[in-house]
Amino acid sequence: MSFRIRDTDLLGRSGTFSVGGRSVDTPAFLPVIHPVRQLVPGPELLAMGFGAAITNSYISLRNYGHGISERGGIHGVVNYDGILMTDSGGYQVLEYGSIDADPLTMAEYQVEMGSDIAVVLDRPTGISATRERALETVEWTLRAARDTLPVVERTRGRMAWAIPIQGGLHADLVERSAKESAALPYDVYSVGSPVELMNSYRFTDLARLLLTAKRNLPPERPVHLFGAGHPLTMALAVAFGADTFDSASYALFARELRYMTRCGVRNVGELEELPCSCSICSRRTPRELLEMPREEAVGLIARHNLYVLREELLDVRQALHEGRLWEYLMQKTTCHPSLYGVRSLMVEASGDFTEFTRLFKRRALLLFGHEDVHRPELMTAASRARRVSPRGKSITLLIVHSVDVQAAPSAGDDVYFVVPFLGLVPPGLSDVYPFSQNSKPDPTSIDRRVLEETARASADAVSGWGITSAKIVHNGSGWAAEMAGLLASRLTERGIPATVEVSHV
Amino acid sequence: MSFRIRDTDLLGRSGTFSVGGRSVDTPAFLPVIHPVRQLVPGPELLAMGFGAAITNSYISLRNYGHGISERGGIHGVVNYDGILMTDSGGYQVLEYGSIDADPLTMAEYQVEMGSDIAVVLDRPTGISATRERALETVEWTLRAARDTLPVVERTRGRMAWAIPIQGGLHADLVERSAKESAALPYDVYSVGSPVELMNSYRFTDLARLLLTAKRNLPPERPVHLFGAGHPLTMALAVAFGADTFDSASYALFARELRYMTRCGVRNVGELEELPCSCSICSRRTPRELLEMPREEAVGLIARHNLYVLREELLDVRQALHEGRLWEYLMQKTTCHPSLYGVRSLMVEASGDFTEFTRLFKRRALLLFGHEDVHRPELMTAASRARRVSPRGKSITLLIVHSVDVQAAPSAGDDVYFVVPFLGLVPPGLSDVYPFSQNSKPDPTSIDRRVLEETARASADAVSGWGITSAKIVHNGSGWAAEMAGLLASRLTERGIPATVEVSHV
């Protein structure tokens, strides 16, 4: 097993995961292949670019038993020549109950199947578990992981092993589960419970669960997020640190004639036309899908859904590559109000993001609303700006919409720009990314809260310098006057008397 | 010529435009077909679903002269069997100068070409014109339109005629151009100058130009927006009232190996993978495009760009059909900061939108940020709510996150809900759309400005009732207390003393 990281952005990364002679680019979406009722043949999944998939070991055990190796293992059974992860079937064990499905049995069976990424039999926490019950699932799963270790050691090199992180909505238990899991010699961490959170549209809780786990796991190892492969959650999963995620939604939705779009799901009957360019949709109408035999329509919609998931994945990867995952995830939050809370979590996690978010990019930073004041790139840039402290005890702060390298006063004058979103910019750093390489709404369209938060951040930066007075200069336009007033108040609160002047120069 | 309107939403509408025995669904994107150098053959455009296209009469005149009718007219020359609009070539006339290109000559030539939608020879205003120059273009174009009338009358029934609206950024001149054009017997209004605005990313100015024109044109007739067929501007064009729009961008971008996405444009060399499911992209890599002969790559990218434009168009149409064009356009504004100002313009135009925006929809209203407080549906709903006036002089206002039909107090108590985004909701209207059929961020994720603007709107509504006191009740949570405080202040400002109480019932 190897995991090579190429690019990083926020807590996301792109890279290559290799095991047993096969490789897949990450972040990767793993379509669920049902071991028995397969909707889209394995070779088609591979041809669409899904180089890894996931199937279920418990259902395989019940259906194929120990004869599976004679059928070419699980790759032969499901006719898929990519990397195959095998879910341990914790949910199914809970549901159907079975005494023979103990951790060692399931581990040995996954070896027998020829799994590429086996998962320790877990006890899923779910989202309605009491703290007591959640603790039980954490401890049960950790015990199972320890019991499984002999099999892990015996098969090392041939296959990868994933340890499930439990705890659900109990953050302290997720932390404990992650910390103790991190101490065990597993290759992959797979974070549990997302499906229930997704089904109830609790996307912020989902992101927080992943963030909590991620904060307590070694950053160099891959993280799988169970079930989060949905157009609404893929960007979120990647931004908060998942490298792989799976989902059966493409097939489950298709069976109900539910048609995925990049921003939601529709019944085929609700569509006027098929708004997609894939081979299924570009020459068909919704009516044609509704009038053909249902099984045929289900198969076609499943393929369309896979195309949508693939598009979303490729867009997320490109955003990560360009270092604009923040912008991309912000956009996704406009798909549904339940995603809106993710914005605050992004602001909260900005400190986590800074370490892995490159400051320099080829593209301008795009700035929109007040959350963007807290972009990790701007936090990093601000900490540089703060180090350019004044020589004297008095400073001049020029309110400008954009820094103008030409018009920059000389640094010796203890003059600084204050720019919406960017905050304090020493003229000497004007041409350093992203101070000059950004795009923001025009002056009259900037949200008041952007001005408020810029003023607060700028005052905080200045207050570390031990200065005794500040002169704020603006050009007299409405937004600049407002910004100047806000800044003066924030400075005064911090014990720095500030005057405001208008200069039309 | 006939134009049948099916659905309306904001100032947009869907319908069918028919002329000369051919029909096209609107809103429609008309790809530009160059009369000589054609990048994508006409039959392919038709097969992709582009049932109308636009070409240039001036370039045709220079290249094919009066022999064009022997070649099967312009449809034969460009091998396109859909509705063909012919731009008059105002820009080209300005650029190359030509004494024989007077309005009547160009009108007669468009008849000779077999144009389906001919355009009066215009003098484009552009965006850098002084007021004097702009006035000149308005008057010149109106004069040309009057001079062309004999040809229009002679060919009525066989073809449609479009009159260009000039004035550019001079709103009063756009108004005059639109008003005087509306009085003339033309079939289509085509709004000029968007291309320059788009090239300089002045999207808010573009929307305002269209809004100004639209306010002064008869709503039942079709409006064409020159050049605005771009993934970033299509939703905007439709929302502000354009039925058709054209663009050559698919081809112009392709010639520079520029690859469209739904949210922007990239050089093919910047892409890691091709994030699209169209027949061009689903089996190719960016490298393959870069390594093939350039002309071949240009042709393929042009086709991909057309697929992206088609997807955007279909998504806009579906949003219009579902009555959620507001949500869709809000999403688009997160593609680039230059679009952010469009949000304020949407709020400003909400009064224009209400007339054509259906109140009842099959889908829940999705509410995100403070602009959504001013959604046309909520304005209409609020005016109903205001009519449910209290019996007495004192009212009780219950701050709630969502109206609960079960828990609704009886109407006789002069009790009202106050709900973020929705404002004042009389319990008797609780189950009326959209008071119960909406989705909003969870309580802790609602922007403060939403609370502020809800408080202001609610206080305005109450202040019309002549009441003398108000009791505000909330459940003690942070956001509800803040909302209660804001509401109390707004009421007090309006001369209505208000008390605030906490009730955990």
From TrEMBL, chains A, B:
**Which is an annotated GO molecular function term of this record?**
zinc ion binding
Keyword Metal-binding belongs to the record: yes
Q: Which GO terms describe its biological process?
A: tRNA wobble guanine modification
| Identification of the protein by name | tRNA-guanine(15) transglycosylase
Q: Which gene encodes it?
A: tgtA
Q: Give the source species.
A: Conexivisphaera calida
Tell me the InterPro entries matching this sequence: ArchSynthase1/Queuine_TRR, TGT-like_sf, TgtA, tRNA_ribo_trans-like
Active site: residue positions: 87
Alphabetic keyword roster: Glycosyltransferase, Metal-binding, Transferase, tRNA processing, Zinc
State the pathway, as annotated in the record.
Answer: tRNA modification; archaeosine-tRNA biosynthesis
